[in-house]
Amino acid sequence: MNAEDYLVLTDLYKTYNGEQIAVRDVSLSVRRGEFISFLGPSGSGKTTTLMMIAGFEQPSAGSIMLGGRSLDVIPAYRRNIGIVFQSYALFPHMTVRRNVGFPLRMRKVPSAEIERRVDKVLEMVGLGSFGERRPRELSGGQQQRVALARALVFEPDVLLLDEPLGALDKNLREQMQVEIKRLHRELGITMIYVTHDQSEAMTLSDRLVVFSDGRIEQIGTPLEVYHKPASRFVADFVGDCNRLPGRIVDPVKGIVEVGAFGTIHLAQACAFSVGAAVEVVLRPEFMRLNALEADNSLAFSVAIEGLVNYGDTAVLIGKAGSQDIRLRSLAYDVAGLSEGQTITARADAKHCWLLPV
Amino acid sequence: MPAETPTMVARKSLSERFGTLLLVAPVMIFIIAVFIVPLVRMAWLSISDPKLSLDNYVMLFSSALYAKSMLRTFLISLSVTLICIFLAYPLAYYAATRGNLWGRFLLIAAALSFWISFIVRTYAWLVILGNRGPVIDILKTVGFEPAPRVLFTTTATMIGLTHILLPYMILALYSVMTKIDGNLGRAALSLGATPFRSFIKVYFPLTLPGLVNGCVLVFIFCLGFYVTPALLGSPRDLMVAGLIATEVQDLLQWGLASAMAMLLLAITVTLLTIYDRLIGLDRLWG
Q1: pLDDT reported for residue B1
Q2: Which of A52, A67, A110, B170 is the most exposed place for a label (fewest CB within 10 A)?
Q3: Looking at the partner chain, which of B183, B190, B194 has a beta carbon nearest the beta carbon of A87?
């Protein structure tokens, strides 16, 4: 075992009653101390995979290794894996202290040491003075901190978080994201974070694992996934995108003709044959208004059909010929524009990404 | 303006209170006529028949017959309550944690018996446990000859009472169990608790309110149950309600019977008061 292969999932497969397939062909290798997010819509298999790592679900096939040993026959209660649920799952009949001390009592830790470690971890999540309260006397954010403290106090090998911030409002969520990131940095613990919120996954993770329909669509750093989506699904699910029909002119030189919008010259060769139809993915925020004409770029004459102004940024929706176009820019740049006008937008070749049709 | 507000509020609430009073008046009249008046009359009987004194109560506390009947009633009630716990807990647990067809079927089957009169069900046991019934047949085939008597024994009483009161226990437990977050058990496992310890430390304590509810309902029902013990039970080992009936019907001891009924009522009210202090009477119905 090396540090690269701390938690290894190999060909995980999960089916209920042999018909519905919840998860298939899931293979993944997690580094020690890495922050991984499982991103995908509900029912995509991300939570099922998490539950198999935790030991609540048995894989129908495949295996899970942690720190060089197989988890396949180890029950959940001996895996030493912490988990934080969206519903917090705090024990309502116990005080905060009793909740946080629970895993230590289960491990028969001497009570003086339990007190010491509970104090320390409560301090760490900023709840030092809340020990004697009951969970229902705390706010949602505080309850989630208790859940984190309880899952961290026994120093688990891996911490699993199942949509932990899903029940919190936006401001609190951002605050807790910072908190979780801080805990990850300070403790150096391996974390797997399940979410369907792509911005949350982007900001927190070292790597993203994008799930769809029970399988992994792509594994990569947030920027890789964002700029080089492996499939149409990933391109659509992680951020907005424009998809333009294109045709390969020269795969070796990376020359692609993008309909009437121009021909671009990519930096490297692409794995398509001459004349192959492709889809050119272009993120809305990489289309520029008021840009000067430049080499190796696409130009769009967009008839504005709608403007959505968020105050800081704005999304412009329109048509270039028959092609739907979405463009995101600073609100400053769209000031004075209105529906019915036609504007020129440009996009640089280096921001284009090809997908097979 | 601020000075006026309190009187306006007061006037409004007065008319509201009057409206509410009007709404509850029919049911209050009904309760007074059929419940409070007879109760007061019975309390009066217990100290005035045959003459104005506390003789009836002295008799109750000094005679072994009544003390034994009281003790028996307690023991039977306690046993039925315990049997109900052991039968109902697994069933309610199964129905609450597996939301599948079987669980729902069991629950509906239990709830359904609410709508079948307990008198009908008691008569059914009369047939089932009787001399020509299937229970005796089975006992005979497995070699009990002559077969022991089952009907008209305390065992038959307990079988009948358990059958009638089991649904209360099941529903009391079920209503609490369905509100328990399924992730609590998983959280306990992930924190290192074995399934057994997870049950003992987390699940079971959270079902206690339902368990106490069920016990209070079943126990108190048992204390004053008349029909089932009278039909299925032994005429020699009477429960309190049966004894009261005997005093009235056979011995015409109205005063003594009233005193016994008052005592039973006092015990029931005491139990409910303790329950109210501990948990709250409003929780009794889920």
Answers
A1: 42
A2: A110
A3: B183
